[in-house]
Fold:
Amino acid sequence: MNSKTLSKGIVRAVLTLAALAAFLYFLYQIQSVIGFIVVALVLSLLGSPVKRFLMNKCKFGNNLAAIVSVLFFVLLLAGFITTFIPMVVTQSDNIAQINVAEIERDVNKILHDYGGILKSKSAPNEEVTVTSLMKKINLNIPNLLNSVFGTLGNLGMAIASIVFITFFFLKDKEMLQRNFIKVLPDEHQEKILSSIEKINHLLSRYFLGLLGQLSVMFGIYIIVLLIFGIENAFAVAFFCAVLNIIPYIGPLIAAVLAVLFSILTFSATTGNVSDAFPTALYVLIGFQIGQFIDNNITGPLIFSNSVNSHPLEVFIVILIAGMLFGVVGMIAAVPLYTAIKVILKEFFPNNPVVKVLAKDI
Structure:
């Protein structure tokens, strides 16, 4: 091998790595769009039976059946939102009934006792009180409001984008499939179609299992909340169960929200926040029991029986996806990882690593 050939090889390798890095950076920049497409794809899979029913039983046309199927999801979302309106109103009333002066007096006592820790080095003689802390926090209120309104705007755009993409996935499903088959290389067409069939089968089992998992968690949560008399128990339990879709972080947020709602409910009733702490602790214990059941029984069953992946394997994949793509990556990690394993097994069945990772698929 002469120096010219070696230099060409090095240049080609560098260009390949640069192109790969640019492609990965591009995917990172459009991660929101990828998330929209993934969610729309899942909704289209779930909406396909609805569309078939409307076309076969109700004699709807293709376009009308797709529109009604999308409206079905929109109505579900609207029902989901309206379920929480009474909860928000109730908790707002509870906050209004809290004795703010008493809370401020108690917190000021705590700050006075531990003020030495909280005093800043730049102003060691400055007394730390609730009022002084609120003055500092108020400086960031405009930024907080801008962040809230920006989040609401992004959420509205996300919902509109997902609805739009889902409609065309449902409406033009057959056409998209035909066009997809046309662009497939003849030598790999059979393997690709086989991979798609296996992926659809595994992901259908996964989403059904996930629905079962959410149902179990909803049942546990609502029992705990009803036992301790938490207001709007149905809405709170439903929302906390849905948060389980976000692996590992979702259950933690659900537990915090349950404790918060418990404190608001009982502090409004008794007029004293400290009286609500024992009940909030019991609610937290109940939620932890539910999450223990989920982590050790329902979760492993779903991962092992639906996508045939070891829990440790799934944990590492979710962790990496979360670091790269945030919450969207954590939610989409298991379905995408399953699809990748199926494709690798179909195209590289003799690879030692693929044999280990995809042996049960």
